[in-house]
User: Fold this.
Amino acid sequence: MKTQLLVSLAAAACLVGCSTTHLQDEDERAVFNRTQDVGNKLAAELSHKNPKAVVVVTSFQTANDLNQTDGFGRIAAEQVAGCLAKRGFHVVEVRMRMAGDPPARNSKTPKEFALSRDAKKITQEAKADYVVTGVYAHGKFNSIIALKAIDTNGVVQASYNYTVPATVSFDWDRSTLLKAEPAR
Assistant:
């Protein structure tokens, strides 16, 4: 009985720990929590329409250039995809560009990401029921995100507009961090 209680408590602690974010920065935590909240709302809304749907989530694009994304656009899309998968949707992993579109020469965008505004083409090729896409713009203090779930006919079935602090950069990588460190 005592062992069973300890196992139950350990399992509960793991579940709580696994679902909690441990971000030290308040703005990073706000971005994570807000995107998680919107992803869960989208999943709940789509589950009322088609709980067994196949969904493709594209990287979110910057409003200033719909052929570009950045770390924020990629991580926000991945986070929303995770919310959909947890809700039981079959989330298809795709990474594509429009045929024949090489990355821009000055692009900071990795070569491999899902970036397309052609929802009908994506749903047909992936045999998906919905494509979830987003567009965002970074302002001085906030980033504004417009998130949509589009069906095979190109009809928006769910959408959410939300804001997050614009003070967070998700474009750090090892070389960027080294450049940002002060010279010694």
In short: The chain has a mean pLDDT of 75. The helical segments are 2-19, 26-49, 71-86, 119-126, 174-180. The first strand starts at residue 54 and ends at 57. The two ends are 59 Å apart (CA to CA).
